Amino acid sequence: VEQSARRGDTIVTRLRLADGQQLDGHSAVPMATGTKAKLAVRGERMRIAEKSGANTLDAGFTTASYLGNHYEQKLTLAGQEIRMLVDVPQPERAGKIHIAEGDALVFSAE
């Protein structure tokens, strides 16, 4: 955790991922700087991004599997393999994903 502060009725917590990228999310309580945290995001809430911006992260797209009306896209983010749901699969390449602040939930890992 880099910082955590109340913004109205919401607590916004900024994380620094293992690869140095930053992401703002919501937590239930303010968290102390330096606290180890876990991030939870539903796969269908992530979006492919065309350019950099707030809560936009560099990722490496790998394989995609057809699941009927959408694809499960695998990608590498901060050294971890994650999965997101997309309508159009991405070829294996470097790219960007966007996660809205309210869709990123932060929990203490301690």
How does this structure look, described?
By secondary structure, the chain is mostly beta strands. The chain is 0% helix and 56% strand. It has no helices and ten strands. The strands form two sheets. It has a five-stranded mixed sheet, with no helix packed on it. It has a five-stranded antiparallel sheet with strand order 5-9-6-7-8, with no helix packed on it. The protein starts with a strand and ends with a strand.
What topology emerges from the helices and strands here?
Layout: E1 3-7, E2 10-16, E3 22-27, E4 37-40, E5 46-49, E6 56-66, E7 71-77, E8 80-86, E9 93-99, E10 105-108
Parallel strand pairs: 3-10
Antiparallel strand pairs: 1-2, 2-3, 4-10, 5-9, 6-7, 6-9, 7-8
The portion of residues assigned to helices is under 10%
The assigned structural class equals mainly beta
Strand content: over 45%
| Widest beta sheet: strand line-up | 1-2-3-10-4
Q: Which ranges are low-confidence, i.e. pLDDT below 50, for 5 or more consecutive residues?
A: none
Overall average residue pLDDT: 96
Distance between the termini: 12 Å
Shape: elongated
**Radius of gyration using CA atoms only:** 14 Å
Q: What is the element string, with H for helices and E for strands?
A: EEEEEEEEEE
User: Main sheet?
Assistant: 5 strands, mixed
Number of helices: 0
Question: Which characteristics define this entry?
Answer:
single chain, mainly beta, 5-stranded antiparallel sheet, 110 residues, elongated, 5-stranded mixed sheet
